[in-house]
């Protein structure tokens, strides 16, 4: 953010730019980061913006986009003898067709909450007679640390450590959204943490192929307001681009070392996304030389036979992740779906859109 620029000045700038939009034009801007979603809700930014500017939450929560078939796979592992599941806490209560990890733990499954993949590796060193499986959920931000952990496991010769890779990549899902006839977007607030790894280049397809702009954005309310102003200027001037607002954290080239680790350990693969289906080259699988640490290969995991429901009846998580509904438009929101009794992952995760709306938003219609 520019020195001396405060929220009131930024709101005034956004209002001035909004008045320059064509009559009847509403600009739809999607934030693709759960941290942004919660910052927007907590600070009341939606209520500050002019009526012709709408902020829409997208698939920016890695736990939320985890598909029910992936949930079924790790619940299968949790129920196997001699397996210890190491997971981030957000996954514990995500509901699947066969319950959740928390419910599996109550039935006797070994489930350990960890705060980093390296902590899971330490479990493998400590419990050498148990199979430790780390559930790797996250975007480009977390993949390098998981890759380094896999490399360390190989260096140490640990034969009881493996990773179930459910990583997702952000650029392919943005492309899928823009190709979806149900989705109407004019620009993106791009995730600052992801772009510290990727840099600018993977997002250049937005202006080149779709004539849509994006601003890589920090996490304070003023950062987000400035990004909105930058996007509005792009739209008014007809110059879609990928710009960096979050200059203290993001370099145009990203983090070459982190990307090198990702490329060494992982290879892109087709992945399932909740609400969006299968998207080519949007996931990460372990490369052949690290197959011994791939839990899907190690335990011969197969997709469950028969249909696997992706949502409970009435749950709108899929539409919310695509930005075609907002939480108050879901019939279960604040009734059959609350943080204490979640029907879908968007209410469970600390980065989920439904959790943000439940905690912060006062919906004003439209």
Explain this structure.
The structure is a single chain. The protein has 366 residues and is an alpha/beta fold. It has two domains: 7-61 and 170-244, HypD, alpha/beta domain 1 (Rossmann fold), CATH 3.40.50; 68-169 and 254-298, HypD, alpha/beta domain 2 (Rossmann fold, 3-Layer(aba) Sandwich), CATH 3.40.50. The chain is built from 16 helices and eleven strands. The strands form three sheets. The protein has a five-stranded parallel sheet with strand order 2-1-7-8-9. A four-stranded parallel sheet has the order 4-3-5-6, with helices on both faces. The model has no long low-confidence stretch (mean pLDDT 93).
Q: What would CATH call the homologous superfamily of the largest domain?
A: HypD, alpha/beta domain 2
What form results from the Cα inertia axes? globular
Query: How far is the N terminus from the C terminus?
Result: 30 Å
CATH class of the largest domain: Alpha Beta
Radius of gyration, Cα only, in angstroms? 21 Å
CATH names the topology of the largest domain as: Rossmann fold
Overall pLDDT score = 93
Q: What's the β-strand tally?
A: 11
Order of helix and strand elements from N to C terminus: HEHHEHEHEHEHEHEHHEHEHEEHHHH
Query: What structural class do the secondary elements suggest?
Result: alpha/beta
Q: Which CATH architecture of the largest domain?
A: 3-Layer(aba) Sandwich
Helix fraction bin: 25-40%
Major sheet attributes: 5 strands, parallel
Strand percent estimate: 15-25%
What is the topology, as strand order, of the major beta sheet? 2-1-7-8-9
Number of domains: 2
Q: Please count the helical segments.
A: 16
């Amino acid at each position: 953010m520019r020195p001396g620029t405060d929220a009131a000045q930024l709101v005034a700038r956004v209002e001035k730019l909004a008045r320059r939009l064509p009559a009847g034009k509403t600009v739809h801007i999607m934030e693709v980061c759960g941290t942004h979603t919660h910052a927007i809700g907590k600070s009341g930014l939606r209520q500050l913006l002019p009526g012709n500017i709408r902020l829409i939450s997208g698939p920016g929560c890695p736990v939320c986009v985890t598909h029910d078939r992936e949930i079924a796979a790790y619940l299968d592992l949790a129920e196997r003898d001699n397996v210890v599941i190491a997971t981030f806490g957000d996954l514990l209560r995500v509901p699947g067709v066969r319950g959740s990890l928390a419910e599996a733990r109550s039935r006797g499954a070994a489930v350990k909450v960890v705060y980093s993949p390296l902590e899971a590796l330490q479990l493998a060193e400590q419990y050498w007679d148990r199979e430790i499986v780390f559930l790797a959920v996250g975007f480009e931000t977390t993949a390098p640390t998981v890759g380094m952990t896999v490399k360390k496991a190989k260096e140490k010769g640990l034969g009881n450590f493996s990773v179930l890779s459910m990583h997702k990549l952000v650029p392919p899902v943005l492309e899928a959204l823009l190709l979806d006839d149900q989705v109407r977007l004019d620009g993106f607030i791009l995730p600052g943490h992801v772009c510290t790894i990727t840099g600018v280049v993977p997002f250049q397809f937005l202006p080149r192929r779709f004539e849509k702009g994006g601003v890589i954005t920090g996490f304070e309310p003023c950062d987000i307001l400035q990004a909105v102003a930058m996007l509005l200027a792009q739209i008014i001037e007809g110059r879609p681009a990928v710009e960096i607002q979050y200059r203290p954290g993001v370099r145009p080239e990203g983090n070459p070392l982190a990307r090198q680790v990702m490329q060494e350990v992982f290879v892109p693969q087709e992945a399932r996304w909740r609400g969006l289906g299968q998207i080519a080259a949007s996931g990460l699988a372990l490369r052949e030389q690290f197959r011994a640490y791939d839990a899907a290969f190690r335990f011969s995991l197969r997709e469950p036979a028969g249909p696997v429901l992706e949502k409970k009846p009435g749950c709108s998580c899929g539409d919310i992740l695509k930005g075609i509904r907002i939480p108050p438009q879901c019939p279960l929101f604040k009734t059959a779906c609350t943080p204490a009794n979640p029907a879908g992952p968007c209410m469970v995760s600390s980065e989920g859109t439904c959790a943000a709306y439940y905690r912060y938003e006062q919906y004003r219609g439209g």
